[in-house]
Design goal:
By secondary structure, this protein is α+β, with helices and mostly antiparallel strands. It has two domains: about 5-210, H-NOX domain (Alpha-Beta Complex); about 240-330, Arc Repressor Mutant, subunit A, CATH 1.10.10. It is built from 16 helices and seven strands. It has helices at about 10-20, 25-30, 50-60, 65-75, 80-85, 90-100, 105, 135-155, 175-180, 210-240, 250-255, 260-270, 275-295, 300-305, 310-320, 325-330, and strands at about 5, 45-50, 110-115, 120-125, 160-165, 185, 190-195. The strands form two sheets. Strands 3-4-7-5-6 form a five-stranded mixed beta sheet. Helix 9 (about 175-180) links the parallel strand 5 and strand 6. The chain is globular. The protein starts with 5 loop residues before the first strand and ends with a helix.
């Protein structure tokens, strides 16, 4: 089942800025994501992780090792109110516990946890349920950005005892040792890095009780709103995903959501998407799954996705991926 939720434009903006420095236009990186240049001018724009991952897939196609570089550029100040709440926490431990309390605001694709191991703690990223082809990129980006957040909070690098990754060492593995600054193990059972427990009690240089209380309260309210929107969008996606063979249309979906078509359209617009974009996203994910399995003929996949003609499906898949369905098959 497709696991997608709302997120901010932070990571997308970072990808674009990184490649723009080397002269690559933003349009190339936004291809197939449904994100327009106009969307980038609004700081409160919300996108789905599907859209974010399409931009990241475009980036990885250009540079396989881009995850580490992007993670190094994701400073705590990029997280808005949450970033300021973390910076003004009393101790390093308080800040970490606050970050783990609001994964939606952190924008992570992982379940983050602190796991005890004697006198050290492992900050672990697990339960990844997005595109398997982008798992290594997302792990690199997640753990590297978390290391940068820790360094920013303390005002100096957090000394790490070790880092673990659950995949084979890439040909650029030396960069892991350089950037994490510790022994690195590949083909491990988790994705995590470790540090001494004593750092949890370290006072933060920018601690401020009054500012922290105000920012923490705003984070709580934003998280309530954000997760409520995610739950609503999740229900819309669930209904639509069950009817891809005979999509209900905007009016039919609105009836199933017990609201008017105008209300549904307005809510989707506020979330940065439309009925057609959601339908295309779900069709694309299901098509990739079936094409990868190799069991169903292309005409049958087209039929199951609600296309009246195979040619229409081929045209749509070309628009989504840039290649024909037959070329996508293993």
């Amino acid at each position: 089942m497709l696991h997608s939720h709302l997120t901010t434009l932070n990571a997308v903006s970072l990808v674009l800025a990184t490649f723009n420095e080397h002269g690559l236009p933003s349009e190339d990186l936004l291809a197939g994501s449904g994100i327009g240049l106009a969307d980038l001018r609004h700081a409160d724009t919300r996108i789905t992780t599907f859209q974010e991952m399409q931009v990241c897939a475009n980036a990885v196609a250009l540079r396989r090792d881009i995850g580490l570089e992007l993670g190094q550029r994701m400073h705590v100040s990029a997280y808005g109110m949450l970033g300021y709440a973390l910076l003004t926490s009393a101790t390093f431990g308080d800040a970490l516990r606050l970050a783990l309390r609001y994964p939606a605001l952190l924008g992570t694709l992982f379940e983050l946890s602190l796991e005890e191991d004697g006198e050290c703690l492992w900050l672990t990223a697990g339960d990844y349920r997005e595109n398997p082809a982008l798992a290594q990129f997302n792990i690199e980006f997640c753990l590297m950005s978390l290391k940068v957040i820790c360094d920013d909070l303390l005002g100096h690098p957090l000394p790490l005892l070790g880092a673990r990754f659950d995949y084979a060492a890439p040909d650029y593995q030396v960069r892991y040792t350089e950037q994490f600054g510790c022994p690195v193990q590949f083909e491990a059972h988790t994705n995590a890095f470790a540090f001494e427990r004593r750092w949890l009690n370290q006072p933060l240089p920018l601690a401020d009780t009054i500012t922290h209380r105000a920012m923490a309260e705003r984070c709580r309210k934003q998280n309530t709103e954000f997760t409520g929107r995610q739950a609503w969008l999740g229900r819309v996606r669930q209904l639509l995903a069950a009817q891809l063979h005979a999509a209900p249309g905007l009016d039919g979906l609105a009836g199933q959501m017990n609201c008017s078509p105008r209300t549904l359209r307005r809510h989707l617009h506020a979330l940065g998407c439309s009925y057609q974009e959601l339908l295309d996203e779900l069709r694309f994910e299901r098509a990739k799954h079936w094409l990868g399995d190799g069991e169903l003929p292309i005409w049958r996949i087209a039929e199951q996705l609600g296309f009246s003609e195979t040619a229409s499906f081929r045209h749509a898949f070309m628009r989504w991926s840039g290649v024909a369905p037959s070329q996508f098959r293993p």
